[in-house]
């Protein structure tokens, strides 16, 4: 039997609604299936990239252990960038190693004297003040950073302790311990991203035993550590070319420059020179992995330990991060 004429429109509308509902359900199921597949592919690519990066860490360890000369400079084989090279079809790898002891170690603002409160090192503070001024920042930040690290409650002349941070919104306390990332500088009231980007290429957070490698230190750092100087290395246009051939300046050359400064013969000069070396043990490996259309970057902090009674030389991974600082 045919439906009455006044019911045919209702039946058609119901049919249209059912088709629309089925289409929405089908589209939703297809979307969820596609997203699940995409998340699975992304997770697989991420795991694969980490494995590739760990392989790059093994290559970096081998290259660092093969370096048997008495200096660590940009002319060494480990300092030459790798790639990009195709590891497997669709997987590309590029990697490079940076000598982190070519930067100013923020933790060196505290003297390594074994005191429980961590004594601020005035020589390091003065050098850091000069470095700050050379990169266009205010010298006062040296005192604030020193107070951020030391474990007492007495502020430096231009520093701050809890009294300066608990008044912030929201309030917080200073760290009062060694830092593990230079990004902690952003916690200083008023420091800000612009200042951080200016200073970041020149500083690092390492254990206090890390000496400055004159072979890889930036010209600004070399001049900041000499004391009030004529900025000899900042103005030296051939330094980059010289370092492609080997260590420049050598420790002997740099000592000669420092000894001719106004601090000649003073005890602080001896302490300052003890901070330098021509060898390094802390390095950062930057691994860039491309898998299809996905890109991953891993930053690995490596420590090269010399051979000793406990065994042969080896390289350990101390830290991994997906951000450089």
Describe the secondary-structure layout:
Blueprint: H1 5-66, E1 82-88, E2 91-99, E3 104-105, H2 122-134, H3 141-149, H4 162-165, H5 192-199, E4 203-204, E5 212-213, H6 219-226, H7 239-243, H8 251-259, H9 267-273, E6 276-277, E7 282-291, E8 294-305, E9 314-321
Parallel strand pairs: 3-4, 5-6
Antiparallel strand pairs: 1-2, 2-7, 7-8, 8-9
Helix pairs in contact: 2-3, 2-6
Word description of this protein:
The longest helix has 62 residues, at 5-66. A hairpin with a 2-residue loop joins strand 7 and strand 8. The chain has 325 residues and is of the alpha/beta class. The relative contact order is 0.15. Helices cover 38% and strands 17% of the residues. It has 9 helices and 9 strands.
């Amino acid at each position: 039997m045919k439906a009455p004429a006044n019911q045919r429109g209702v039946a058609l509308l119901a049919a249209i609604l059912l088709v629309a509902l089925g289409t929405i359900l089908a589209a939703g199921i297809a979307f969820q299936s596609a997203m699940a597949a995409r998340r699975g592919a992304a997770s697989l690519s991420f795991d694969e990239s980490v494995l590739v990066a760990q392989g790059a860490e093994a290559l970096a360890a081998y290259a660092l252990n093969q370096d048997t000369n008495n200096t660590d400079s940009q002319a060494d084989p480990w300092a030459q960038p790798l790639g990009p090279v195709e590891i497997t079809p669709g997987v590309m790898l590029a990697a490079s190693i940076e000598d982190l002891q070519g930067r100013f170690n923020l933790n060196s603002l505290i003297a390594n004297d074994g005191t429980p409160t961590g004594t601020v090192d005035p020589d390091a503070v003065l050098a850091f003040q000069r470095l700050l001024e050379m990169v266009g920042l205010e010298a006062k930040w040296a005192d604030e950073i020193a107070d951020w690290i030391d474990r007492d409650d007495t502020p430096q002349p231009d520093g701050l302790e809890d009294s300066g941070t608990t008044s912030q919104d929201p309030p917080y306390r200073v760290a009062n311990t060694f830092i593990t990332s230079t990004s902690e500088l952003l916690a200083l009231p008023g420091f800000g991203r612009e200042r951080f980007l200016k200073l970041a290429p020149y500083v690092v957070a390492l254990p206090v035993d890390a000496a400055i490698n004159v072979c890889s230190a930036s010209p600004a750092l070399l001049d900041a550590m000499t004391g009030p100087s004529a900025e000899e290395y900042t103005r030296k246009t051939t330094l980059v070319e010289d370092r492609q051939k080997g260590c420049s300046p050598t420790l002997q050359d740099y000592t000669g420059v420092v000894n001719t400064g106004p601090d000649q013969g003073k005890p602080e000069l001896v302490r300052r020179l003890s901070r330098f070396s021509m060898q390094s043990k802390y390095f950062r490996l930057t691994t860039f992995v491309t898998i299809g259309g996905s890109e991953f970057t891993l930053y690995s902090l490596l420590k090269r330990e010399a051979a000793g009674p406990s065994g042969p030389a080896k390289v350990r991974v101390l830290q991994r991060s997906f951000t450089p600082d």
